[in-house]
Specification:
Layout: E1 3-8, H1 17-21, E2 28-33, E3 36-41, E4 44-50, H2 56-66, E5 70-74, H3 86-106, E6 111-115, H4 122-135, E7 140-144, E8 146-147, E9 150-151, H5 158-167, E10 171-174, H6 189-209, H7 211-214, E11 220-222, H8 229-242, H9 253-256, E12 261-263, H10 269-279, E13 284-285, H11 301-305, H12 311-325
Helix pairs in contact: 3-4, 4-5, 6-8
Protein name: 2-amino-3-carboxymuconate-6-semialdehyde decarboxylase
Enzyme class: lyase
GO molecular function: aminocarboxymuconate-semialdehyde decarboxylase activity; hydrolase activity; metal ion binding
């Protein structure tokens, strides 16, 4: 069984909150043809997408062609909109959660859904998390790597993580509003440098905060192989050792990375092997970033090239680790 854990989807009839609220910061979908559209922000093209981002029939064709049994659907990160007023952010989250749930309901054997919540208001976020999981049947949440510049270990977010821990809701952390983004206008560095750096900061914040001691059953997966985290880990350990005054954890950072999950999207077998050595093969989940240009085709392509992995380890990375992370019984797909 092959599961592509990291894929994004958006409704073809995406709501226009820019028009509704007179605020051009909201992402808007402008169709360019039946096969494509631009995501617009402040009247400028933020991202060009194809109909594979909304047309599930095209998506299923690609899955069949690439040997993918199941895709895990999640929102496009620019739609997190944590900067908005809380009730408006909730409106955006509900729309996306309802849409993803409907896509899953149409093809329950091929799709699993992740929802989203307005993290700018923890009370509303917890309420929508409960609705997404218990009423809509989504299997987890995708959240951003920061909330309006606050790292994920900010005390204002603690009750959200406590609820996710108590309700056993898996969380997929995806970079957005990247660190130093004002320095990334050229070369598409936001995607190539900013996102990996941002992911490492998010992961480091959680690891160093003591959250994983406090909430040991918390399930968190980081996009893009954890970004630059695998390579920064020895430096984090050294900082933990030489600055005892900053310690909030019982053990050094390298202990906690093996209680987290990471997608396999690093494109290179040497990098993937390094991740496996650092984190363990049981913590790696195949994911492609479908349907965007930077995606791996097919999902888990590099996993297949590694000669150091057993057939069982490859099977786990390709699918079973994802189902385990999402608390899904694999028997229902057999």
């Amino acid at each position: 069984m092959r599961v592509d854990f990291h894929t994004h989807i958006i409704s073809e009839d995406f709501l226009n909150l820019a028009e509704k609220y007179g605020d051009d910061r909201w992402p808007v979908l402008e169709k360019t043809c039946s096969c494509g559209a631009n995501i617009m922000i402040k009247g400028n093209k933020f991202r060009e997408i194809t109909n594979h981002a909304w047309d599930t029939n095209e998506r299923l064709k690609d899955m069949d062609k690439e040997g993918i049994d199941i895709q895990v659907l999640s929102p496009i990160p620019v739609t997190f909109t944590y900067w908005s007023e809380a009730e408006q952010g909730l409106e955006m989250a509900k729309f996306q959660n309802d849409f993803i749930a409907s896509a899953v309901n149409e093809q329950p054997d091929r799709f699993i859904g992740l929802g989203t919540v307005p993290l700018q208001d923890v009370d509303l976020a917890i309420k929508e998390m409960e609705r997404a999981i218990t009423e809509l049947g989504l299997k987890g949440l995708e959240i951003g790597s920061n909330v309006n510049g606050k790292n994920l270990d900010d005390e204002l977010l603690d009750r959200f993580f406590q609820a996710a821990h108590e309700w056993e809701v898996p969380l997929f952390v995806h970079p957005w509003a990247t660190l130093g983004r004002e320095r990334f206008p050229r070369h598409n560095f936001m995607y190539m440098v900013g996102m990996p750096s941002e992911t490492a900061l998010a992961a480091g914040s959680i690891i160093m905060s003591g959250m994983l001691d406090k909430y040991p059953n918390l399930k968190i997966c980081f996009a893009h192989g954890g970004g630059s985290l695998p390579y920064l880990l020895p430096r984090m350990d050294q900082g933990w050792n030489v600055w005892p005054d900053i310690r909030k954890t019982e053990k050094p950072p390298s202990h906690y990375v093996r209680s987290l999950y990471y997608d396999s999207l690093v494109y290179d077998e040497n990098n993937l092997q390094f991740m496996i050595d650092r984190f363990g093969a049981d913590r790696i989940i195949a994911g492609s970033d479908y349907p965007f240009l930077l995606r791996e085709v097919p999902s888990g392509k590099v996993v297949d090239t590694l000669t150091t992995l057993s057939a069982e380890e490859k099977e786990n990375i390709h699918g079973l680790n994802a189902l385990d992370f999402l608390n899904v019984d694999k028997a229902q797909y057999e």
